[in-house]
Amino acid sequence: MSVDTLSYKTVSANKNTVQKEWVLVDAEGETLGRLASKVAVMLRGKNKPNYTPHVDCGDNVVVINAEKIHLSGNKMQTKTYVRHTGYPGGQRSLSAVELMAKNPTRMVEKSIKGMLPKNKLGAELFRNLKVYEGAAHQQEAQKPRVINLKEFK
């Protein structure tokens, strides 16, 4: 018995064949980590049948209402975001409450960026993310399709 090899071709997406679209995600009432993992999957393109690991085949994602996100448990008070200036004794930290008051979009961006690959592709994928405080966004011209995260698998 011989196998028809032409019927078993693996289709690999590339920059020319990939179909990217704009999607809109409302973060109101969502838990930070659960929202971030679903958005990271959309940015990566893992929800598409033509997913290829080394190609940017994900969608452009717009997240609105970043200030209305919530964290489970006591994380809003206890979670800390640590960074270093690069100078001796230059370790700085902010609690989640302080970061939310200062810049709520940064909290969402940080959690999504942490779920993307740590390489050039990850940096390229992160550029496809737009996070906004409030319901207004600057991507009306792209006509983003609204995604309900409760139904997104």
Q: What report would you give on this structure?
A:
With about 150 residues, this protein is an alpha/beta fold. It has one domain (about 20-145): Ribosomal protein L13 (Ribosomal Protein L13p, Chain: A), CATH 3.90.1180. About 25% of the residues lie in helices and about 15% in strands. The strands form 2 sheets. The protein has a 4-stranded parallel beta sheet, covered by helices on one side. A two-stranded antiparallel sheet has the order 3-4. A hairpin with a 6-residue loop joins strand 3 and strand 4. It is globular.
Shape: globular
Instruction: Tell me the number of helical segments per DSSP (H or I, 4 or more residues long).
Output: 5
CATH H-level superfamily: Ribosomal protein L13
Radius of gyration: 19 Å
- The CATH class, by name, is Alpha Beta
Portion of residues in helices?
Answer: 25-40%
* Mean pLDDT figure: 92
Structural class: alpha/beta
Range of strand content = 15-25%
What string, H for helix and E for strand, traces the elements in order?
EHEHEEHHHEE
**Measured distance between first and last alpha carbons:** 40 Å
Strand arrangement, major sheet: 5-2-1-6
Largest sheet: 4 strands, parallel
Q: The CATH topology is what?
A: Ribosomal Protein L13p, Chain: A
Low-confidence stretches: none
Q: Total number of β-strand segments?
A: 6
| Total domain count | 1
Q: What would CATH call the architecture? A: Alpha-Beta Complex
